[in-house]
Specification:
alpha/beta; Rossmann fold; 4-stranded mixed sheet; 12 helices; 42% helix
Length: 338
């Protein structure tokens, strides 16, 4: 199969690097210094624990330089970036190909092809004008979420850690088992990236979102790590309250999550956690990923009648921060004073 990785940052770079190293036909699409570094010297995958590094020669190109059609198009942009490139991405898939959308948070197609009182409901926080629904036929979509800590400390370099829970989860929108899922997993697994085929891709997304909905906005607002927030009693209580709200919303739409927010937050104090991707965006002056990680939960809460006061208050504050970053073109970074 011919693979295209559209938006080859940390997640897309990792997937594309593994597939390339395994001998598959892979093209990575990205911009700027990251693309230039990969095109010049290859992609460097560095082990956080050992410091060991592997350099993989990859095909890294700019948007518009693709040579379609591609059998599998991995879309690894952040959720709020997809609409701006949707028309172009939609032109790259082979007739019988598919898109694998690897994003954190909830997808715009959440209520499609499932038995639900809310079946067919469009989440306006994620697809306000229906662009995504028009551009990507529902039968071409494979949902996905990755559980693996990654960092992009410099252009062309991805730092990764290893944990027993590391995996890429893929699943059909209608939760069925299909040959294309088997084919995707058959290429990724031997390439070095554990891949799990899920019979409930929405539940997998909620499982990660349970933490993302708390730590991502709180870390962005406080400039702190998750373990620091969880260790301070007032913010610890807030984190638990936010997670309980996310859990209640998830289960109101049938996610069936059995989780203990107090234990999850407590566990965050046991190790020094990396900074969240949203805090990284704050420090680099990039638009924040609030719709898929926060506002969509609030929207579903209103739809189902589940109160989300803590999530709403934090999303409002994070929204102000996001507006300042986008409208003023600023990055907010810590400055040593001693």
């Amino acid at each position: 199969m011919r693979y295209l990785i559209y938006g080859a940052g940390a997640i897309g770079g990792l997937i594309g690097g593994h597939l390339t190293a395994a001998g598959h036909d892979v093209t990575l699409v990205t911009r700027g210094a990251h693309r230039e570094a990969m095109a010049r010297r290859g992609l460097i995958l560095r082990d956080r624990a050992t410091g060991g590094a592997e350099t993989i020669p990859v095909r890294a190109i700019l948007p518009g330089e693709e040579k379609p059609p591609y059998d599998v198009v991995y879309v690894t942009l952040k959720a709020h970036q997809i609409a701006g490139s949707a028309e172009h991405i939609a032109s790259l898939r082979a007739k019988d190909g598919c898109y694998v959308f690897v994003q954190n948070g909830l997808p715009w197609w959440y209520f499609e092809r499932i038995a639900s009182p809310y079946a067919g409901t469009r989440l306006k926080t994620l697809d306000p004008d229906g662009t995504l629904a028009r551009m990507f036929p529902i039968e071409t979509i494979v949902g996905s979420v990755i559980f693996k800590p990654l960092d992009l400390p410099e252009p062309g370099v991805i730092v990764h850690a290893h944990a027993p829970t590391d995996r890429l989860v893929i699943g059909e929108v209608d939760n069925t088992s299909t040959p294309r899922l088997e084919a995707i997993a058959a290429d990724l697994g031997p390439a070095g990236l554990k891949t799990e085929i899920s019979a409930d891709i929405r539940k997998a997304k909620w499982t990660k979102l349970l933490s993302n909905s708390v730590w991502n906005p709180l870390c962005a607002l406080t400039q702190a790590r998750a373990d620091q927030i969880a260790s301070y009693p007032p913010s610890r209580a807030l984190a638990i309250a936010m997670m309980k709200e996310t859990l209640a919303v998830a289960n109101a739409v049938g996610a069936g999550l059995d989780a203990d927010p107090e234990k999850i937050v407590s566990d965050a104090t046991k190790r020094r956690t990396p900074i969240s991707s949203t805090l990284t965006d704050v420090r680099l002056g990039r638009q924040l990923e609030l719709d898929a990680l926060s506002r969509s939960i609030i929207e579903i809460g209103k739809l189902t009648g589940v109160p989300t006061p803590c999530l709403e208050n934090i999303a409002a504050c994070a929204g102000v921060l996001d507006n300042c970053i986008v409208e003023e073109g600023v990055a907010i970074q810590p400055v040593p004073v001693r």
